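Thread: HD-GYP domain-containing protein, structure

OP (GT): Posting the sequence first so everyone is looking at the same thing. Length is 362 residues per the record. Can we get the structure tokens written out before standup tomorrow? I want them in the notebook alongside the other entries.
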Amino acid sequence: MRKLHISSVKPGDVIAKSVFLENGNVLLGMGVELSSRYIDRLVQLGIDTLYIQDKHTEDIIPEDVIRDETRKDAVDAVYKTMTTLMDQPQVKRRTSLPDFGSTFQKVFREIITDLSRRRDVLVNLSNLHVLDGYFFHHAVNVAVLAGVVGLAKGYNQQQLMELGIGALLFDIGMTQVPKELWNRKTELSEEERKRVQYHTEDGFNILRSQHNISVVSAHCALQHHERYDGSGYPRQLTDKNIHEYARIVAIADVYDALVSPRPFRSSYSPSDATEYLFATGNSFFDLDLLKVFLQHVAIYPVASTVQLSTGHVGVVSNVNSLAVNRPTVRILQEPDGSAVASPYEINLYEKEWMSITIVKTL
């Protein structure tokens, strides 16, 4: 399969990886043949990339670090909890929600079990979902990314669970913000901006009232918008005054936000997102944690369509954990746009190809 921007997808193409609704259920499943109506509808729903079947890349299959069942269970748990908090005002006033902590402990235990089995795989967030599902899928992606960093740092089981619960629920305070402010395309007023920013404190207050959630997990909600140089909110904390869990969640939050389509912009490629993060190390983010994070994320994920400095176009068939910017690429297209007579692969890490670089993701 190969991943393409939806502008390059055409009627008759067949979906190779399912597209999901906000609650984790399938909108369009693998094997569905796309029509013009389907493509237009996907664009309306905010889908900007798709995985498409292709005879030259049928053996190229991106590996997720967690199983589909694990992801669905996690998204479903986040969806049910968040929508309950949004839709039932009386629930918001309870001091503790029944089974709240145990539900998310079970969810993250499944995530960390999957991650522990796949620690050699670079993270490729390959799930595709409708724009309205961003809030719920984003929480799961942030938990996955945070869990990868926690494992890399050698956290024990208690630390992993504290970090994971905090990462799954770091944005829970947004359930208290009027929904019309979430994705506003126009600039917010000063009062509206303060209301949105207060979600960090709302989230902290919700989580610390749960008898089976650690207060350090709650600090992920409170501090995930703090920045290393003190430019964040709500308390303008600096460097190590920000809890390490929150510093990890902050990196994961921004990375996944960048690589996801938003109402006001298209998604960034993983390479552009990682470049942005690295440029802000020790100003916005803890550089040491950022280095750990970037060592475990695929800059050019398997199945990505890329253009090389030679002008050739190909699909990433394998990634190299020793040099994440030098994957193996299956060449499909000549510089003049014509198809190659026979697809072939080049390993950009090998000496004979070292002069060739990837210039952009298509």
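GT: Both are above now. Quick notes for whoever picks this up: Strands lie at 2-5, 19-20, 26-28, 49-52, 128-129, 305-308, 313-318, 328-333, 339-347, 358-361. The chain has a mean pLDDT of 90.
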